[in-house]
Design brief:
Distance between the termini of chain A: 38 Å
Oligomer: heterodimer
Largest interface: A-B, 19 and 22 residues
Number of domains of chain A: 2
Number of helices of chain A: 8
Shape of chain B: elongated
CATH topology of the largest domain in chain A: Rossmann fold
Number of strands of chain A: 12
Strand content of chain B: under 5%
Distance between the termini of chain B: 31 Å
Structural class of chain A: alpha/beta
Number of strands of chain B: 0
Order of helices and strands of chain A: EHEHEHEHEHEEEEHEHHEE
Structural class of chain B: mainly alpha
Strand order of the largest sheet of chain A: 2-1-3-4-5
CATH architecture of the largest domain in chain A: 3-Layer(aba) Sandwich
Radius of gyration of chain B: 15 Å
Helix content of chain A: 40-55%
CATH class of the largest domain in chain A: Alpha Beta
Largest sheet of chain B: none
Strand content of chain A: 15-25%
Largest sheet of chain A: 5 strands, parallel
Shape of chain A: globular
CATH superfamily of the largest domain in chain A: Response regulator
Helix content of chain B: over 70%
């Protein structure tokens, strides 16, 4: 795992150097980009395992680059934001990011976050069941497509994996820790709102596609799917 | 055997270089320029992000606050902007002298 290639996008060379040193110390390979255009070029030519993407990189900004990468790939994207920046989780997740880190970050936390994303990617690469169906929701784990009543609904990687977990055992309550593990985050380093944001966005997408709200929150425990089957 | 932490070594070797870059960037801003406020906000944002990684966390916080203030209050009196600009520069210079 440690020899995986990581793309670091930041307009400040000293931040790139810090991140590079942290990652190379742990055995990762690193490629860099200093702006959005270069990021897309390097991304397309090197096919990194994870992208670490600063938000304020000029134009196009981190959100735009994130959306652009998402059109082409489900690679894990970790956004870097400045402390106190008026950017919330929802904006990062809406752009298609899987996680975000507030600067500055310690080498240990940085490496943990990246390792978690990579571990998760390994899990996602070996689905056990190809199609999951609950009510009018159909999830194809091979093509990673999601349909509501026959209508295709685009999901981010994190949303897809969150929903897949719930659909594997409808009616079962999954704890927040179990969901965090599957989506490639950890309870220690994730805020309480992270999962609520993912769940909320999933409900909106399903509703907009004409489906019913089947994702339920169990107060103090986690999430479950409300199903008329199973 | 004493183990060397490459990240700590790199930070130790470069922290004052990074601090100097922040000082230089702030010194280069021209108050008379039409884009003074915008550039000050951008420099404060970028350099605040950078020096935070190199052990200057409290100074980074001051820079971030300056950047946020400029974004939230774009019509703040120019004298106030200049005063804050000078204050943060002095703070960074003091850190350099230590």
């Amino acid at each position: 795992m440690a020899s995986e290639l990581i793309l670091v996008v930041d307009d400040n060379p000293d931040i790139r150097l810090f991140v590079r040193t942290c990652l190379e110390t742990e055995g990762f390979k690193v490629v860099e980009a200093e702006d959005g255009h270069q990021a897309m070029d390097v991304f397309r030519t090197t096919n990194p395992a994870v992208v670490i993407l600063d938000l304020a990189i000029g134009q196009p900004d981190g959100f735009e680059v994130c959306r652009e990468i998402r059109k082409e790939s489900s690679v894990p994207i970790v956004m870097l934001t400045n402390r106190g920046e008026e950017v919330d989780e929802a904006m990062c997740l809406a752009a298609g990011a899987d996680d975000y880190i507030t600067k500055p970050v310690s080498p240990r936390i940085l490496t943990l976050r990246i390792t978690t994303q990579l571990r998760h990617r390994g899990v996602a690469a070996s689905p056990a069941q190809t199609t999951l169906t609950v009510n009018d929701l159909v999830l194809d784990t091979e093509s990673r497509e999601f349909h509501v009543g026959g209508k295709t609904v685009p999901l981010t990687r994190t949303e897809f994996d969150f929903l897949r977990l719930l659909m594997t055992q409808p009616r079962r309550v999954f704890t927040r820790e179990q969901v965090l593990e599957v989506i490639g985050s950890s309870a220690e380093f994730s805020s309480d709102h992270l999962l609520d944001t993912h769940a909320s966005r999933l409900r909106i997408k399903i509703r907009e596609a004409g489906g019913n709200n089947v994702i339920g929150a169990v107060r103090g425990v986690g999430y479950r799917l409300y199903s008329t089957q199973a | 055997m004493l183990q060397i932490d490459p990240v700590a070594e790199m930070v130790k070797a470069r922290k004052y270089i990074v601090l100097e870059k922040a000082i230089t960037a702030l010194e280069a801003l021209e108050v008379s320029s039409n884009t003074y406020r915008t550039k000050l906000a951008a420099v404060a944002h970028e350099m605040g992000g950078a020096i935070a990684f190199y052990t200057f966390e409290s100074e980074a916080k001051e820079l971030s606050e300056l950047s946020h203030w400029l974004e939230k209050d774009p019509d703040a009196p120019i004298e106030e902007v200049e005063r804050k600009h000078t204050e943060i520069l002095n703070l960074l210079r003091e850190k350099r002298e230590k």
